[in-house]
Amino acid sequence: MSDRILFWHRRDLRTSDNVGLAEARTRTPNVVGVFCLDPNLLERDDIAPARVTYMVESLRSLQESYRRTGSDLLILHQEPVKGIPALASALDVRAVFFNRDVEAYGRERDRTVAEILRQSGIEVTAFWDQLLHVPKEIMTGSGQPYTVYTPFWRNWNSRPKAEPVPSLDNAKGLSDIEREKAATAGAIALPSAKDLGFEWNTPLLLEPGEQAAQERLENLVSKRSSPMTSSGIFQEIPKELLI
Q1: Which DSSP state fits 3?
Q2: Is residue 146 part of a domain?
Q3: CA 82, CA 84: separation in Å to the nearest integer?
Q4: pLDDT in tens, 51-84
Q5: How many CB atoms are closer than 10 A to CB 57?
Q6: What φ, ψ does residue 92 adopt, rounded to 5°?
Q7: What single string gives the DSSP state of each residue in 14-60?
């Protein structure tokens, strides 16, 4: 077994300030990414063509980011419970890392994939990435969820916040032989939204990709936006809320 780690992307289409990806890189430079185009999500009635178009273009940007680091982002188009274990086995990886999901489908999917991987002797490690505080960390003195915002905010604001983690850098991608193995396990070229059955010919309101998102965030922070309170007084948004 190699020391390679397969990092499974889901909502976190970025190589900067990505907790699970950064942890993988501290273990080894042999980090390869994967994103699974999940039919269980793409075939839902509420999936809009604009959303799929934005996702595909963000994945294209993410693949370019991986290439700049020296590694690869692989694409699967199959159910994760089948595709992730098959790819991990084909590449003989030591571990699969990912950031936790909080939705019901995602949590059940992750439990199933993790169980299959561990049965094959592959380490599985999950991280909290999209939250500044994990669920149930900010509670009342009696251990109950808050029902009033102001005391919740005071408690939240009093807690230390994690610093951003390092971006992926100087990673090591797949050899030609390993790419052939990945293809045999189901890895494909990134399809277009049209390939996936979604037509969207109108310009997107937001530019896809990590760099564009970072620029929007920096612009928002620089403006120091001020929402109106119920009393009609404007209050400045703390910068921590915008990161």
Answers
A1: S
A2: no
A3: 6
A4: 999 999 999 999 999 999 999 999 999 999 999 9
A5: 18
A6: 55, 45
A7: -SSS-HHHHHHHHH-S-EEEEEE--HHHHTSTT--HHHHHHHHHHHH
